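User: I'm preparing a small set of examples for a lab meeting where we compare how different chains pack in three dimensions. I only have the primary sequence for this one, and I'd like the structure in token form so I can line it up with the others. Please keep the answer compact; I'll paste it straight into my notes.
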Amino acid sequence: MTAQEIIIRPVVSEKSMSGIGGKKYTFRVAMDATKIDISRAVEELFDVKVAKVTTVHVRGRFRRQGRNQGYTSAWKKAVVTLKPDSKGIEFFESMM
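Assistant: Understood. Below is the structure token output for the 96-residue chain.
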């Protein structure tokens, strides 16, 4: 898999934005990506040094709209912590 296939999109939420001060960035990643794959993809795409990667499987939530009901799709979330001497990711820094 290429780096663009591994990192699907950044997660922009109140909780994920609070981690930017500690150089923690949150991404939606491919379900079959490993921590090593995610680390290499972030280093390649953003030219930074990764210290740690934490992953979470997010279950689909039950939703109703009128008489229709179902589950949202399940996805995988990765929280990437950068090394202290590494520069930040510009996309997230511009949002602060």
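A couple of notes for your slides: The chain has a mean pLDDT of 94. The first strand starts at residue 7 and ends at 10.

User: Perfect, thanks.
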